[in-house]
Protein 1
Amino acid sequence: MAYKNKEDRPYEKEYKQQVARGELANRMERQRARRAMDKTGADKNKNGEADKREGKDIAHVKALSKGGSNKDGVRIESATKNRSFSRNSKGGLTSETSKKERKK
């Protein structure tokens, strides 16, 4: 829902809903993976992002929704490749391999 004024948006309520649904832990896990990648990579243009990660996503080898974590491994992928997995009607992953990868 779009809000005309930023002050009208119930951020506290949204945060509590996110915690109740269990999304907070996964968001923090993604954030830690990005920060770890940025810490190890070179940043020549000084924008706070590792140069090798610019315009790309950090993909977990085993999806967080399927019980994965940063310990299972992360890799750098293009946004289209990382977000191209087939989904079920609720938005969950049905397979961890994309259609493109299965054809190979």
Protein 2
Amino acid sequence: MDEDEDDVVVVRDSNGTILSKGDTVVVIKDLKVKGSSSVVKRGTKVKNISLEDDGEHVSGSGDGVKGIALKAEFLKKA
């Protein structure tokens, strides 16, 4: 019998820590927002993240920012 293995996507932050749904993360570098003149500042907390299927992006909302998608390489777990 063949068993179907779940394709679990592991998302890691800049330090290699595994991120999970609902975590709080902190931005480690100032990031420009595409299509806008605003900037997400270093130290901004993004709460209650959800993981994307590609294993590279997370989305969430934080201090003055709603519904933003960020690359995990610019985040660290809080």
Protein 3
Amino acid sequence: MTDSLTDIIDPLVRDLVEWIAKEPRVQRDVLDAWRTSCPRLMVWETALERGLVERKLLEGQGAFVFVTDAGRHFVRNYDRPAARAGRKADVLTRAAA
């Protein structure tokens, strides 16, 4: 993911994680609300890939999405300068792999 794409998608990822942090969400609701027709803006997939959210099956209730500790940390530190630098470094590391 390029820096400019990261600059575009990170605020959307933060919004998604912040929304789920308020309460666990039914996976279908998450996908309906955050699915995009633009293949370059994979908000749901990015949040999962980064380990910011996780999917759990709850017996008798179906699939739910929860925020992970990493997701709470991401939201809490999103606007801090060091966090922005860390996100860019993370993108560069993934791009080099």
